[in-house]
Amino acid sequence: MEISGIISAIVIGIIIGVLGRLVVPGRQRIGILWTIAVGIVAALIGAAIASAFDVADTKGIDWVEWLIQIGLAAIGVAALDRAKSRR
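Above: the chain's sequence. Below: its structure in token form.
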């Protein structure tokens, strides 16, 4: 992976993480770095799932892939928030 790919993964991870955080209702007790990390992981896993279902490369905007990634980020943010609140 080239440096441009790493930078774009971080930028997409930030966007996906923030959108996932917005989907989860209430206040989350996790920091922005955790949100970014969850977003990056959700973006990578979501891209793999979309590719497996052959919806990753479509004409125009890949709405299905984005929805999968945002859904995974929301689940990740909620799970991490729940894990942190139990401590």
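Residues 3-85 form one domain.
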